Amino acid sequence: MNLTVEENLTPRRLDVYLNEKFSEWSRSHIQKLIADGLITVDAAQVKASFKVTGGEEIFIKEIDAAEVDYLPEDLPLDILYEDADIIVVNKARGMTVHPAETVKSGTLVNALLYHCKDLSGINGVKRPGIVHRLDKDTSGVMVVAKNDAAHIDLAAQIKDKIATRTYRAIVHGVLTDNAGIISGAIGRDKVDRKKMAIVPDGKPAVTEFKVLERFENFTYVECKLQTGRTHQIRVHMTAIGHPLLGDAKYTARKNFFKIEGQALHSHTLSLIHPTTKELMSFTAPLPDDMQKILEGLGIRN
To answer: What are the respective helix, strand and coil percentages of the chain, to the nearest 5?
Structure first.
């Protein structure tokens, strides 16, 4: 894939520039691609610290599909919308988004490879089309890019907060404020590297919340992301003393209900279509497990 750096850019490191363009890539991942010679500038190998200033031609080598064994799988897909540029799905709780070293089948990517003949190649063969992700045990609406132009446009919308996402969650305890904003930089936990935490050297993160319903020991909330950090809602709600129901990673509180994983659902996604420039909004209904919990607590449809 070729990418031309915009003219008159304020000089910045190559890895920083690419991280801004493709926020779903970590800087460490970008640095590895550069070190492995898979990213070049003006046909030359450079270091991650190389400064781009404008007009440079960046080439990102796509890994040959023969190097991996992630195969298309005929798995159920709840498709909310599809056209030549994007596909919007309602991801099921328990489905991993993309393959990894320990998970090479049964993922959303495997299902997409079966359903779609064309997906963007910006993230290589491991994560084709994936513009943003949801945790394995978070359900709900996701957009996937079918071509590189759509991918770049959507990634920029997410970075620039043009695309908006709202989530629904059930949390422990009763929130006293009807609404609020949680700010706290998020990075790897200093003790448990498998967890995220609010840390001084983390990336800025902001979550808006609004109470939808209060119960005796729980609160049903809506959360809106201003940023998109790993485990952001889970970390921020835990930080204010209201961890998500079922979130074994971030709370030892007992899970009184039959739900596998955290009670968190990507409810709505609004974006500008990358080709037609039409404002579009998609909603994924609550999964049955969360709906049954709410009904048990007192909400009736």
So the answer is: 20, 30, 50
Whole-number Å distance between alpha carbons of 277 and 294: 37
In a 10 Å sphere around its CB, with 0-12 CB exposed, 13-18 middle and 19+ buried, how is residue 295 labelled? exposed
Enzyme catalytic residues: 135
pLDDT in tens, 64-83: 433 445 678 889 999 999 99
Classify domain 2-60 at the CATH topology level. 3.10.290
Q: Give the Cα separation of 108 and 98 in Å (integer).
A: 6
Task: Report pLDDT digits (tens) over 220-260.
Answer: 999 999 888 889 999 999 999 999 999 999 998 888 787 88
Q: Which residues contact 205 (CB under 8 A, 6 or more apart)?
A: 183, 184, 185, 186, 227, 229, 232, 235, 236
Q: Which of 202, 198, 203, 207 is nearest to 226 (CA)?
A: 207
- Average pLDDT rounded to a whole number, residues 101-119: 80
Query: Is there a common fold for 2-60 and 65-160?
Result: no
Q: Domain locations in the chain?
A: 2-60, 65-160, 165-266
Q: Residue 208 in contact with residue 223, Cβ under 8 Å?
A: yes
> What's the pTM?
0.77
Q: Tell me how far apart the alpha carbons of residues 147 and 132 are, in angstroms, rounded to a whole number.
A: 15
Total residue count of the chain as it appears in this document: 301
Query: In this structure, are strands 196-198 and 12-13 parallel, antiparallel, or unpaired?
Result: unpaired
Distances (CA, A) of 179 to 154, 225, 237: 29, 14, 13
Considering the domain delimited by 165-266, tell me its CATH architecture.
2-Layer Sandwich (3.30)
